[in-house]
Amino acid sequence: MDFNLSSEQKLLRDSIVKFARGELNDQVVERDRGQVFSRELWRQCAAVGLLGLPAPEEYGGVGADPLNCAIALEALGYGCRDGGLVFSICAHVLACVVPVWQHGSEAQKARYLGGLCDGTLVGAHAITEADSGSDSFAMRLRAERVGAGWRLNGSKTFISNGPVADVAVVFAVTDPAKGFHGGVTAFLIERGVAGFSAGQKLAKMGLRTSPVGELVFEDVWLADDTVLGTVGGGASVFGTAMDWERSLLVAAHVGTIERLLETSIAYARSRSQFGQMIGKFQAVAHKIADMKVQLEAARLLVYRTASRLTVSRSISLDAAVTKLFVSETLVKTALDTVQVHGGYGFMEEYEVERALRDAIGSTLYSGTSEMQRNIIARWLGL
Amino acid sequence: MPDQLMQKIKNFIMEEFLPGEDADELTETTPLISGGILDSIATLKLVMFVEEQYGVNFEPHEVDKENLDNLVSIVRLIRAKNPSAA
User: Fold this and answer.
1) What is the CATH number of domain A235-379?
2) What is the mean pLDDT of residues A4-33?
3) Active-site residue numbers of A?
4) Nearest CA in chain B to A381
5) Are A163 and A214 contacting, i.e. CB atoms less than 8 angstroms apart?
């Protein structure tokens, strides 16, 4: 067990931090205000390999193992103050690139992975529906067998990248009698297919530069070769996406937590009240000390889970533990950062109020904290 | 003579998912998935147990109600993969 990064891993981390700081932070306040998703920044991220981190090199990816993916995403979360862009990248990589790479046919991989990795395409993952959020297995989007294909009717909502997606992994019920295991199938669908449309972009509290919206399916006909994995094998595709997302999306959070810690330290050392820097007051110092403790624990959890991602038969328990702890740590750290900054923290200019708004969603998406606790409890036999 | 393999699977299910319940209530044909005894995590736990115990590997599409909804179908699937499983 070696807790040190190798020289290659340090280089990976440093190069992404430098790129993110240099290229991704200009105008972030304005982009957040206008809820702007930047295709230009998307392409720049692709150029340094961020959009195809785990995909094999022969398909245009970087071929990074899960631990190196975690290190890269941590560096992105640390260097990039545009939380929405980081979130969009994670959704694209972990919930679209990974399932296509892991479950796609050779033809599907050849068709989509190149564009997903080089930034030409934006990917999305669509399972949530208006009446099935945490209870995602109760989905109603129906795919009926029609000749040599399928006809889809229904809708999805809260789909990250949905309004700008060029290709989406979509889950639909193909056999209601079988339920989620055996009765749900994943499909790959492209923008422009007749009957398939993106509804309006939804306004939201945080992650405002990451577009989220509805996807609508009205008599959409899809050929058999759009099935991702096997007919009835949607649960497996979904499981892969959730394992990667819950394990590695939070790697970006670790980077954000470290940045917020450093922001808090810098402010506590520069701001004086009652004749001394506020960091000398125990109430402030202890808050920041706790941030440091939680950061280190969060990082260890992420690295361990990432290391086990492709070697364990099931990562479900580790992923739930990690997702729960890191996302709740992110929210607490962001809230404490605002508190350390006092009234200035409430102002847009200091950018910590945005960090808090961006953090709140982390205990909701990819399974709420309550669902993670349910999963953990079930694994414990409760 | 009772099927030894089926009894082992039954014991695992009783211990893990139905602690304190009457074992006689779990018959060969009791619906496990459609009856709510096996949810997604319980199904995964069962699959991991079977794979480890009997050296078999379940393909993703095999982990469904058709193959795992009762003891008879579970045992049938295991034997199809490992005829000497006991």
Assistant:
1) 1.20.140.10
2) 97
3) 245
4) B16
5) no
Q: pLDDT of B24-41, one tens digit each?
A: 999 999 999 888 899 888
Alpha helices in chain A (DSSP H): 7-23, 28-34, 39-47, 66-79, 83-92, 98-103, 106-118, 180-183, 234-270, 282-308, 316-345, 352-360, 369-379
pLDDT of residue B1: 55
Residues of chain A with CATH 1.20.140.10: 235-379
Q: Cβ neighbours of residue A90 under 8 Å, at least 6 residues apart?
A: A73, A245, A248, A249, A252
Q: How far is CA A335 from the centre of its chain?
A: 21
Could you tell me how many CB contacts below 8 A there are between chain A and chain B?
53
Q: Which residues pair with A186 in a beta bridge?
A: A171, A228
- At A180 the pLDDT is 80
Q: Which of A36, A210, A212 is nearest to A128 (CA)?
A: A212
Contact A236 B63 (CB under 8 A): yes
Q: Given an 8 Å threshold on Cβ–Cβ distance, is B65 in contact with A179?
A: yes
Ordered by where they begin, the domains of chain B are 4-81 (1.10.1200.10)
Residues 62-81 of B with CB under 8 A from A: 63-66, 68
Residue B45 touches chain A, beta carbons under 8 Å: yes
A183/B65 touch (CB, cutoff 8 Å), yes or no: yes
State pLDDT tens for residues B27-82: 999 999 888 899 888 998 999 999 999 999 888 778 888 889 999 999 999 999 98
In the block, tokens 């060969």 appear at B28
Structure tokens at A83: 């939380």
Question: Who contacts B34 (Cβ-Cβ below 8 Å, separation ≥6)?
Answer: A179, B65, B69
Chain B residues closer than 8 Å to A314 by CB: 44, 48
Shortest alpha-carbon distance between residue B55 and chain A (Å): 13
Q: What is the pLDDT of residues A63-74, one digit of tens each?
A: 999 999 999 999
Please state which architecture CATH assigns to domain A124-234: Beta Barrel (2.40)
Parts of chain A belonging to CATH 2.40.110.10: 124-234
State residue A242's pLDDT score: 93
The candidate with the shortest Cα–Cα distance to A239, out of A116, A128, A103, is A103
Which residue of A178, A237, A381 is in closest CB contact with B65? A178
With CB atoms and an 8 Å threshold, state whether A181 touches B51. Answer: no
Fold category of A7-122 in CATH: Butyryl-Coa Dehydrogenase, subunit A; domain 1 (1.10.540)
Which whole number is the average pLDDT over A77-81? 98
- Average pLDDT on A319-344 reads 98
* B46's tokens: 């069962």
